[in-house]
Amino acid sequence: MKVLLVGSGGREHAIAWKLAQSPRLEKLWVAPGNPGMEGLGQNVPIAATDVPGLTAFALQNQVDLVVIGPEAALEAGLADALRAVGIGVFGPTKAAACIETSKSFAKQFMQRHAIPTARFEVFKNLDRAVDYLDKVDYPVVIKASGLAAGKGVLLPASRQEAIQTLKEMLLEHRFGEAGDEVVIEERLEGDEVSLLAFSDGFSLALMPPAQDHKRLLDGDQGPNTGGMGAYAPAPACPPALQQELLRKILQPAVDGLRAEGLPFVGVLYAGMILTSAGPLVLEFNARFGDPETQAILPLLESDLLDIFSACSHGQLDYAEVRWKEGASVCVVLASAGYSEKTAPPAPISGLERVPAGCLVFQAGTSLKNGTLLATGGRVLGVTATGVNLERAVQAAYQAASSIQFEGSQMRRDIAARALHPQQFSYAQSGVSIDAGNRAVELMRSAVTSTYNQNVLAGIGSFGGLFDASELKRMHRPVLVASTDGVGTKVKLAASLNRSRGVGIDIVNHCINDILVQGARPLFFLDYFATARLNPHTVAEVVDGIAQACREAGCVLIGGETAEMPGVYCPGEFDLAGTIVGCLERELMLPRPEIRPGDVLIGLRSSGPHTNGFSLLRSIFQGVDLLETLPGLNGSLGDALLAPHRSYLNLLLPLIEDPAVPLLGLAHLTGGGFIENIPRVLPRGAGARIQRGSWPIPPLFKLAQARGSVSEAEMYRVFNMGIGMVAITHPQDAAAVQAALPETTWVIGEVVQDEKQGVRLE
Asked: The pTM is what?
């Protein structure tokens, strides 16, 4: 057979080396090739993306099979052009290669065909992408959708870094057209594995699983690269798991592409991560990996040309695909400055000292006056095989150390994860028990300041103990419990380093939730979770919680502080709480005698409280939170972070006074007027709200104008200055308002409504 191999890197050098061993090979051309391939075939000075030139060459020289190495040639449509003139091709069509060349296509394809992958969204608009960052509850990876030479995957360490990355891609075109569309997906934790397979469009034949080393420096530090080394087979992916991945991931991908009219012929490469929830696909590639190929092909016992030919004719089932025992390791020698800049050409020496049996695959090289030069990037891939992985690693590094060129760099830990599985400690995984203990000590005085004679055991115990004997003095005691969170207001608090207020928020929110049923609080428990524990931040939050508990006569009896790296983004935290209260059964709210015509009395809020912050942060994106905007008494940050108001001390005396005819209370939290008022109304009753019957605070007016938010949406999301609504008979409204020591407003009435809706008039 006459074969044309397209490409010039280490991957293509490894393919050429293996093809040259085939007794069926009559002639091998490589376009454009590199100096290392000259002894294996004939280099042809045609660029890998020159589709007309390569097609003409293949026709003129009666090429039987074209093997396409690089993804850029696939995206250029080379396979399509060759097949159109009747030339056999090992490589997918441009449309089928979209599984690699368009990450947005790949993610949506996986979604369509139920192939397990990380959560994601696709964006072309910066504002929408930033808004999505504010909504997700997991750390993210940002990927350029198109081809970016292996450098288009970025791992932001903070929200600010993520936004800057998005700006560089979508506005500054850091990766050209490749980054004009981005995929934001969940960052996953676990071992990565590359599983490649030959495909004829129907059947698959697996290669040994490999592990690539993407980061430039030892310990997976430094920037992402195209790959600094690889080894195979990877112990993390034993045979049973390989068959599972074939069944659940690779075969469904090939079947799905064929079902969509995109039969896939070539190498399908699945880059996966083995998470605690099972294997998930990070990416698909539509060709051999680099440097995985340099590690995998030396283990192939069968004739590679036979396999390529069988795939191109849809006959892979008839091909023999056998693999050798043992292991193979490739160590990459890169130039100075890689991966950020290109070093000047430098002579390469020592190749003659490479031990027999070791292979050197060239990539970034050129030949000038008989001297082999390193021309930048990943220059060489040094590969060795051995009876086991340890022997292969030793041989590869012995060979690599024989080679020198100015500024050369390589990782010294290829395959170290497999040879020396790390003995993890909790601290190495990002969790500090010492920081947790320090946080407990810092918060101890704040917590104990809320204690009363009913606390039998609190901080430091497995569970808080509360003496409930005082309930015996009640006639028909009822316990009321509620759990809630602060929501995305914590993101804003974290960004301004103002954490104390959200501690007040969570307590008062929970207090109001049980107050509407007539209960006084007994005790409270908090839950604080973060990526990395900062004891002082925890103590500040708990200090706010303790303050709110003291003001309410409520005991902070327990809580939990959780450090979860990989779940939360650095610098961010989450906060939730649970409250337990009690009341006499006959004082339970709402009263059954609520009826149409009853009056709704509004009590002022202190601000947005803890609701609508995802929308507020979108509206005020890019605004300096320390800036004082028109109408605000202070900065925008002050207005947004005003603590959630508690209505306990204001309303509990009225609830417990039989002379005050209070029929019900509605706490305006998430869902605003529209969702919350109907929760306390009897079946068949709704509410009519008279807009303009109370003064709307400037912050809400500003948000509505700046965000062009409809009025209906404002009342569905925000409290609009009314944090609590009291319900009473019309003849008792004046008495209820007189009993409240602050200005209140009659804002509407209960109406007959079978749909139990809220009308804004």
From this structure: 0.60
